[in-house]
Design brief:
The complex is a heterodimer of chains A (253) and B (197).
Chain A lengths: L1 H21 L5 H13 L1 H74 L3 H8 L15 H13 L2 H10 L9 H13 L3 H10 L4 H14 L3 H13 L6 H10 L2
Helix pairs in contact in A: 1-3, 2-3, 4-9, 5-6, 6-7, 7-8, 8-9, 9-10, 10-11
Chain B lengths: L10 H10 L1 H14 L3 H9 L3 H20 L9 H17 L4 H9 L6 H13 L2 H10 L2 H12 L4 H8 L4 H26 L1
Helix pairs in contact in B: 1-2, 3-4, 4-5, 9-11
Classes of the chains: A mainly alpha (253), B mainly alpha (197).
């Protein structure tokens, strides 16, 4: 036991000396002695080599550990970057979905709008040919008027308009209904703007005239003036065409 | 715990922190690693390296810089970033050329507290030794022993810091344990030599 302890202490002293040399803490003389012992004593030299390898092994293991730790740090940074990238991608996807929805909504609205009736179709839906005027009693201009009305009753609107234009002597203040039916004939002959202009100056049954004037402007696709006329009708709850005007106004493109 | 990316360190603080060793050295190394991690991507592009190779080259450059600072071999005329980038590029080139011998020589040269004659002898020994076998011996001394030796000798933890970190009662018990671990490693090295003879 005592000899074991002595051997151990001797070894420790050798290790301390070797360590002192390795670390460069020996004087030049001590170093020279150390190197001489190494050359002469193989066991001592072996101990010195073992000590050097021990240092190297620990150092290399430390470097390996540090490399592993740094790789872990890199993996953490990469995962974090990926996480942020995925989060960003999620936001981009969400934004894309929102954009697509908005686009779909926009397209749907425009499709719905395009499905609204055209002015011409709306006109056809609301327009009715006013009933033909009664035959007037004989005498004076009435003969010509009766001929015109007869043509109107037959649906010969061209003849009515020709006759109307020939009868320049007709007093339109006295026979304002002739103007009204002239306008209707023009509508039938697809001249809505001229028809509306004629209705603008006639005083025949104001409520009916106003309604047909709105329809004439609608047929001419003059939506702004159509709305203005319909607004006037709608403002008067007692107007004969009030409900139809409200409905038509809502359906306007 | 403070995040490495939250704090900015100057070059002087980095150098002094690494020299101090222990926990501060680990924190500063981690900070330095985070700060220039985009080198990996640059290295991949510039030298057509795979990500793993570029990551290894970057890790080696960081470790090399720390060891150079620790060994007082770092010349601080230029800035740290410039030096690190140059060192990283050299390591990328080594990988492109599949050259690893220069790194062992550099590593031996950077060993701290070792006189030149000892380094020369060690280089000669490394050339004739199977280093993988020696590293395996370090695993045989046990996890705790390995940690004590690596953290005190490589990372430069102070005795007090390591005593607390590893949960020893006092510095003396840590010193005794470290001595036992060192002896154990030497014995294993000795036995290995006997077996090879």
């Amino acid at each position: 036991m005592i000899s074991e302890n002595m051997e151990s202490e001797e070894k420790s002293e050798t290790t301390r000396q070797i360590e002192k040399y390795i670390q460069g803490r020996m004087t030049p003389t001590e170093s020279a002695d150390f190197e001489r012992v190494c050359r002469e004593n193989e066991d001592f030299n072996e101990q010195y080599h073992l000590q050097l390898l021990t240092h190297w092994a620990i150092w290399t293991a430390g470097q390996e550990d540090q490399k592993t730790n740094l790789r872990k740090i890199y993996q953490e940074i990469s995962s974090e970057k990926k996480r942020i990238s995925v989060a960003r991608r999620k936001w981009f996807s969400l934004a894309a979905v929102v954009l697509i929805l908005v686009a779909v909504a926009g397209i749907s609205v425009s499709i719905l709008r395009s499905k609204r009736l055209s002015p011409e179709a709306l006109f056809s839906a609301y327009y009715e040919v006013p009933r033909a005027p009664e035959t007037l009693g004989a005498g004076g201009d009435r003969e010509q008027l009766n001929q015109m009305y007869a043509a109107y009753r037959k649906g010969d609107y061209l003849r009515y308009t020709e006759k109307y234009r020939e009868q320049l002597l007709i007093d339109t203040t006295k026979y304002s209904e002739a103007d009204f039916y002239f306008a209707i004939s023009l509508l039938e002959l697809h001249a809505p703007t001229e028809a509306a202009e004629v209705l603008d100056r006639t005083s025949f049954v104001p409520e009916q005239t106003m309604w047909y004037k709105a329809l004439a402007r609608l047929k001419a696709s003059d939506l702004e003036r159509t709305r203005t006329i319909l607004d006037s009708i709608i403002r008067d709850p007692g107007h004969y065409y009030h409900n139809q005007a409200v409905e038509l106004q809502r359906k306007l493109p | 715990m403070r995040n490495e990316t939250d704090q900015n360190y100057s070059d002087a603080e980095i150098i002094s922190g690494i020299k101090q060793g222990g926990m501060l050295r680990q924190r500063i190394t981690s900070y330095l690693y985070h700060r220039h991690v985009d080198f990996v991507r640059k290295g991949q592009r510039k030298y057509h390296l795979g990500e793993d190779e570029a990551v290894d080259a970057y890790g080696d450059a960081i470790i090399g810089l720390c060891n150079r600072i620790n060994n007082e071999a770092f010349q601080s005329e230029g800035n740290l970033t410039g030096y690190l980038y140059k060192s990283f590029c050299n390591r990328c080139v080594d990988r492109v050329r599949k050259n690893s011998s220069s790194s062992i020589k550099e590593q031996v040269e950077l060993l701290p507290n070792m006189k030149t004659e000892a380094k020369t002898t060690l280089m000669r020994l490394i050339e004739s030794e199977d280093m993988n076998q020696i590293l395996l011996l370090l695993d045989k001394i046990g996890g705790k022993c390995r940690q004590i030796l690596v953290e005190s000798e490589y990372y430069g933890f102070e005795v007090e810091e390591l005593t607390e970190r590893l949960g020893f009662k006092n510095a003396n018990s840590l010193a005794s344990q470290k001595h036992r671990c060192m002896s154990k490693l030497r014995q294993l090295l000795e036995k290995r030599k006997d077996r090879t003879i």
